[in-house]
Amino acid sequence: KVTHEHSEALNQRIKEHLALLDHSDPDANGWEQITEDGEMKVYRKELVQDGLICDPLKAVHSVGLVTAKEMCHYFWFPDVRRDWEETVDVFDVLETLDEATTINYQTHKQVWPAAQRDCLYLSSMVKVDNPPSVGDKIPHDTWIVCNFSVDHPEANPVSGCVRALIEVALICQTFITLPKDGGPITRDCLQCDIIYVANVNPGGWAPASVLRSIYKREYPKFLNRFTNYVQQKTKDLKLLF
Ligand SMILES: CC(C)(C)c1cc(CCc2ccccn2)cc(-c2ccc(S(=O)(=O)CCO)cc2)c1
After folding, report:
1. Which residue, 91, 120, 79, is CA-closest to 103?
2. Angle, nearest 10°, between helix axes 208-234 and 68-76?
């Protein structure tokens, strides 16, 4: 397995994110629930770093009809990013490190009165071989996409943008309920549990109240839009494990 210059950092971050799988009570550890929408629950912690609002965000969700690999594939795959990501203007893949790892540059639409933001980050999709078991449910497969800020010599930043720093993970697990009649596994047998975490440092001043109301509105919208997109995209396709 060829590694790249960011392999160490990536594996370290994956290890840290997988600790979330122990399904410790999301309401514990100072997480405050900010929204609930059906199966989706969104939590945040209030965190200010150097006067900037860097509230960690965690969302837990469970959706039918799709597998963990499908959810992670459409989240990672650069070619479909524009289909579901509505807050991004410019999106470029600067470098492809391997068949599941790219370095991306993107600018976000001006989401608030402050300056426009851009992000430069590594994005990698990894199958998790021996995930920590989760209570009595045995996952069929576990996949993670990890996005974290890196430097890159070829970044040609859009002038006027403030560089935001991101640390994001999407962890998905497929649970299968075998059909009673012993028939083939269909999409109706699937349940995909999702944990999404985002630590975003806006990189420069923005009003706390405005930021927090945007976070509260944008993350649930983004997660609903993305999960619906994957269900639509895969409904007539063979199951991807
Ligand atoms: C500071 C700024 C850079 C503008 C920013 C503000 C906010 C919080 C507000 C928000 C939440 C959800 C969607 C859009 N904006 C979120 C993000 C953000 C969200 C998601 C991801 S990703 O999951 O890696 C998918 C690839 O785009 C990356 C960055 C960035």
Report:
1. 120
2. 120
